[in-house]
Amino acid sequence: MASPRGTWRDDEEDEAGPVGHTGYYSLSESMIDDPWEEDDPDFVDERPRGTGMWPALWDRGIDILTAHSTRFWAIRGAAAFLFLLILIVIWLAITAPLSKSLEPIAPPQITLLAADGTPIARNGAVYDEPVEVDRLPDHVVNAFLATEDRRFYDHWGVDPRGLARATINNWTGGPTQGGSTITQQLAKFTFLTPEQSLSRKAREMLIAFWLETWLTKDEILERYLSNAYFGDNTYGLRAASLHYFYRQPEKLKPNQAAMLAGLLKAPSAYAPSQHYQRAVERMGAVKASLVSAGYITQEEADAMRPPPLDMRLTNDLPTGTYFADWALPEARDRASPGYAQQSLTTTLDARLQNIARDVIAGAGLGNAQAALVAMRPNGEVVAMIGGTDYSQSAFNRATMATRQPGSTFKTFVYLAALQEGYKPGDPIGNRPFTQGSYRPENYDDRYSDFLTLEQAFAKSSNVATVRLFNEVGSDRVIGLARDLGINSPIARGDPSVALGTAGMSLMELTAAYAGIAGNSYPVRPTAFVREPVGLWDRIFNAPRSMSASTHREIEQLLRTAINSGTGRAAQLPGPNFGKTGTTQNNRDALFVGYAGDLVVGVWIGNDDNTPLKGISGGGLPARIWKAFMRRAQGSGDAAPARRRSPNAPVQPLDVPDASDIPASIAEDGAEITTDESGITIREAPPIDAPSDAPRPAPEIAPLREEEPAPAN
After folding, report:
1. What are the residue boundaries of the Glycosyl transferase family domain, all occurrences included (predicted)?
2. Which pLDDT band, with edges at 50, 70 and 90, does 691 fall under?
3. For the whole model, what pTM was predicted?
């Protein structure tokens, strides 16, 4: 019987006849001696065999490749390789999408404008439109190819010759070379981090092959030139040519192109705006590369002179302010993708910002720091001061500092009580008590049997507030604070929380007061005009609000705190609402309140948390708040008055400002008061007249200007 590889001897067939084949599926023992097996002793291999070592090795290799086990593993190896290749393609499609190479590698420049269009800050990388290779002069393209990748149009993303040349040069002590092609550089700064490791280099090569597979050479070069960094916060050839020479890249001269091509090796070190002589020396290396690559002759290189700079596109705006730093992340979210520079209008009121700056500058703070936030009741921030000097410290104390709010937190305790059914005239105990190891004390060390809630709030009694906190419950007060937008940690079951020992930012605290001012909460502070709320949100995501009666009652308490309580230094001629705050040992002093359509928070303190000298919430912060509010609500900024009838009552004009008259003057049985409607004269009630409160309460003792500070 013949086979492709040999024959069996026919001795048995001659003597005993042919041996029957038992079949591949036979269960008989004769299968063991099947003459089909290659190890059968009667099998004769008739293939030609070579002699000597190499023919023998060749024959052995053929045997291995044709063996059943070799074919088995070869098939599985090929399948594994194919599976791995599929995984690599999927990984590249996810981690290195081709569209990303069309996107800026750094956030493009954004100019923030005040509400009136006044530029206030410019931040981000300088970009311009991408370039097109077929529109660039040859001397521009050649300068970059000669310097960065001479064999760019000849390799597949990775240049073995370039790698070998760079390796040998580095080993022999020559100038350090990277060996990366333009495609690899595009892969590196578009998809990878600056990490220096073999794994990152391997990923770089892999992505380079991926880019070469799907993009043309011109497309790769265009994306490279449009994203490369040229120093001075400038990215892309078009932006760089405009920045350094004030001309489009299509009109660059050979010497200008040579200088720009030289910047890519170390953009910050060679930026001609800062290091012109270095840029000139680097330009010499570029000219040598152009000559070596055959793009220009030595005579042309010698005739190429360093180009003069024309930097007329300078940025005269600050890159940051306290408000701009806070607004920038939201601005990035709102900005459109692409290379174009964009301008976004914010809610900042330039006039109010200048008022805030003037008021803080003239406050006489000494070495202390201060912060001010002004917003509308809907959370639109119109003014922000994060410190006394941004150039000295960019740390924003209005948004980033976590400080104790002191007695300004008491507003949430009393509001929670009012929501539980308490009334401003209800009495609360004002005698010292001990709760475990905690013993609250009043600032002036004065106590009485009872105070009404309104009196206790105006007097800022620590003892009464902690008692009320215990009656209402820690969970109820903290829950209300959360509803108002306070997200900072607050310890449950800690009675000192009632006195404002839980740290939070001034922005957070002011936004909570804005929720009370507009009776709509929580309020999320924003640097941009809020979009109108849609029908769906009005129905299913409607903001919380308190009842009209509760809102009137909390405003009654806030008004009393200013008009006759610890916040008297902040009193305005019209309706005003607010609360003072001073922390333990006068480490923080605050005043937060609202009037008209402005909600303003003021904080004063030291960055090292040391005590302030002679400053409390009812003193300097209240006066800063008042000074800002009076100028913000000045007559020059008021809405035009409606034409009055000639028969209307004549308004007194001999008093320039109603605030120049004391709030309440009692003389000869008459009481003179001032409010938003003018001056009222009425018969003063007897001192011992019965109170309108539903339950009797003792008379308030004379108040000091400073309000109590919370005890430890």
Report:
1. 119-287
2. very low
3. 0.71
